[in-house]
Amino acid sequence: MDGRNLPANTILLVDEAYLHFCTSPDVESAMKYVREGKNVIVSRTFSKIYGMAGLRAGFVAGRPDLIAKTDAVSQ
Questions:
Q1: Among candidates 34, 42, 38, which has minimal Cα distance to 14?
Q2: 38-62 pLDDT per residue, tens
Q3: C-alpha distances out from residue 45 to 2, 17, 22, 33, 73, Å
Q4: What is d(CA 29, CA 33) in angstroms, rounded to the nearest whole number?
Q5: How many CB atoms lie within 10 A of CB 29?
Q6: pLDDT value, residue 75
Q7: How many CB atoms lie within 10 A of CB 14?
């Protein structure tokens, strides 16, 4: 997965809630694609790794124009 083969009008959302539990060296974050300006949004939660079940605290990362599109569905 690297976002290179996505159609121009497609946004890839990668949920990395369990990324910190992976021990395989082959698993990597999709944040590098966000930094490269790809049509990728990464979401992470603090609930899983820090044992804060039920708190629903986390973040999303992506280009500002992509994040703005999530506002329409997040309210």
A1: 42
A2: 999 999 887 766 666 677 778 889 9
A3: 21, 5, 15, 19, 18
A4: 9
A5: 15
A6: 61
A7: 19
**CA-to-CA dists, residue 24 to 27, 28, 61, angstroms:** 6, 9, 23
**Alpha-carbon torsion (15, 68, 61, 2), positive or negative:** positive
DSSP assignment of 2-68: -STTS-TT--EEEE-TTGGG---TT---SHHHHHTT-SEEEEEESTTTTT-TT---EEEES-HHHHH
Buried b (16+ CB within 10 A) or exposed e, 39-72: bbbbbbbeebeeeeeeeeeeeebbbeebeeeeee
Q: Within 13 A of 32's CA, how many CA atoms are on the CB side?
A: 6
